[in-house]
């Protein structure tokens, strides 16, 4: 009933736009968290056909889902514990991010058992204080990497880091991170790793910080069409439309309390419409009292508490009937709210809204190669996507 329509042509458009902006650098489409909720395999295929040559994920299951779908492009994965079973990753040609000697040694043991080297991207912490080796630990990481490379156990394919505040070009922290990255790269070159892929830029940096582009850029949110730099528009096209269906309407009078706790009480005669999308589907509870949806191109408010599976919309005197389409968010072309609106209402970032779209929401892919992906992904439920949405 509640569906996420994913426009793969928008993914293609955004990828091409980012690739052009990267001005010669290669492009890694970041498809972690199920492609920010859009379906990682479908997004990966559309991005790879539109200028991306790498894919980025965090976890092994994410990487393996891409390989299982037959995607052969290089994949970098960056979150795992040093003692995780990494043979699977090596056998599947997954590049691994390494921030610590312990991880390198664990990988080298796995590589020794398999008789093939592990491809690694050495990660420097240049100021984000999440992954990466600190400036103090970086030289030792390089020394051990050089030794393991000489033993044929690893190949160093990349040197990389991640920015803390790429949206703000005047941030002094950004300047400090670029300087720290310069040092890390110089030390890597001196340690015998002069030529691996250098990469730093996320979406915002790719689009407005040319000095961060290096050999490869790693956009995530912009691939999905959300503008990453506050106050600027680069012409990205939002890929996801979250839509549902009115399943019941009723006429009520003043004084009617709506939903749990009766936080909302109707003040005039009106029509309430029930929409089967709740917080389990990605409608955050904390948007109550703020969020709107679009029905027939008109904005109408969600009223009362948001339940796990449903919300109530006050449609006033509009001629809304059960079966009518409800748009929670979309590109915004027809007056509907956007992901950015929802992020503002929920006091979060667009990333959390997109990745919060729940697992029971059917993803319906349109555009680029969508026909084949629908039939291969869910042969048992073909109609849910075929029905609805004039597109
Ligand atoms: C998520 C992520 C990205 C993409 O970031 P966006 O801001 O969504 O473009 C890039 N690099 C790393 C390491 C990430 O974790």
Automatic annotation (TrEMBL):
Provide this UniProt record's keywords sorted from A to Z.
Isomerase, Pyridoxal phosphate
Q: Where is this region: Disordered?
A: 371-391
The answer to keyword Isomerase applying to this record is: yes
Q: Which Gene3D superfamilies match?
A: Alanine racemase, Lyase, Ornithine Decarboxylase, Chain A, domain 1
Which cofactors? pyridoxal 5'-phosphate
Where's the Alanine racemase C-terminal domain? 239-366
Residue ranges annotated as coiled coil are none
Q: Which SMART domains match?
A: Ala_racemase_C
* Active site feature: 32, 260
**Reactions listed under catalytic activity:** L-alanine = D-alanine
Pfam families, per the entry: Ala_racemase_C (PF00842), Ala_racemase_N (PF01168)
Q: In which pathway does it act?
A: Amino-acid biosynthesis; D-alanine biosynthesis; D-alanine from L-alanine: step 1/1
Residues that the record marks as modified (N6-(pyridoxal phosphate)lysine) are 32
Does the record bear Isomerase in its keywords? yes
Purpose: Catalyzes the interconversion of L-alanine and D-alanine. May also act on other amino acids.
| PANTHER family membership | ALANINE RACEMASE, ALANINE RACEMASE, CATABOLIC-RELATED
Q: What is this protein called?
A: Alanine racemase
What is the species of this protein? Actinoplanes ianthinogenes
Gene, per the UniProt record: alr_1
């Amino acid at each position: 009933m509640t569906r996420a329509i994913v426009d793969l042509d928008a993914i293609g458009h955004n990828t091409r736009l980012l690739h052009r902006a990267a001005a010669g650098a290669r492009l890694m489409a970041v498809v972690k968290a199920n492609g920010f909720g859009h379906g990682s395999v479908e997004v990966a295929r559309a991005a790879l056909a539109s200028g991306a040559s790498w894919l980025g994920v965090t976890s092994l299951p994410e990487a393996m889902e891409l390989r299982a779908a037959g995607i052969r492009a290089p994949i970098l994965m960056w979150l795992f514990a040093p003692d995780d079973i990494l043979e699977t990753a090596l056998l599947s040609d997954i590049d691994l991010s390494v921030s610590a000697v312990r991880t390198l040694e664990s990988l080298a043991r796995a590589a020794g058992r398999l008789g093939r080297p592990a491809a690694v991207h050495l990660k420097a912490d240049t100021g984000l204080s999440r992954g990466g080796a600190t400036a103090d630990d970086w030289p030792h990481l390089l020394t051990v990497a050089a030794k393991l490379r000489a033993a044929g156990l690893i190949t160093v394919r990349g040197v990389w880091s991640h920015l803390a505040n790429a949206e703000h070009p005047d941030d002094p922290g950004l300047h400090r991170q670029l300087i720290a990255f310069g040092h890390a790269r110089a030390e890597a070159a001196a340690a015998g790793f002069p030529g691996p892929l250098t990469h730093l830029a996320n979406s915002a940096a790719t689009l407005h910080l040319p000095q961060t582009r290096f050999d490869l850029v790693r956009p995530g949110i912009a691939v999905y069409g959300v503008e990453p730099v506050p106050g600027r528009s680069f012409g990205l096209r939002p890929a996801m439309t979250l839509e549902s269906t009115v399943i019941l309407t009723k006429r009520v009078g003043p004084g009617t309390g709506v939903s749990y706790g009766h936080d909302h009480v109707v003040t005039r005669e009106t029509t309430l419409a029930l929409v089967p999308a709740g917080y389990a589907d990605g409608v955050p509870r904390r948007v109550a009292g703020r969020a709107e949806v679009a029905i027939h191109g008109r904005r109408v408010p969600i009223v009362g508490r948001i339940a796990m599976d449903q919300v109530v919309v006050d449609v006033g005197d509009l001629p809304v009937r059960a079966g009518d389409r409800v748009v929670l968010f979309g590109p915004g072309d027809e007056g509907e709210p956007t992901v950015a609106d929802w992020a503002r209402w929920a006091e979060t970032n667009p990333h959390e809204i997109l990745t919060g779209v729940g697992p029971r929401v059917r993803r319906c892919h349109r555009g680029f190669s969508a026909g084949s992906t629908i039939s291969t992904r869910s042969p048992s439920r073909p109609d849910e996507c075929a029905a609805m949405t004039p597109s």
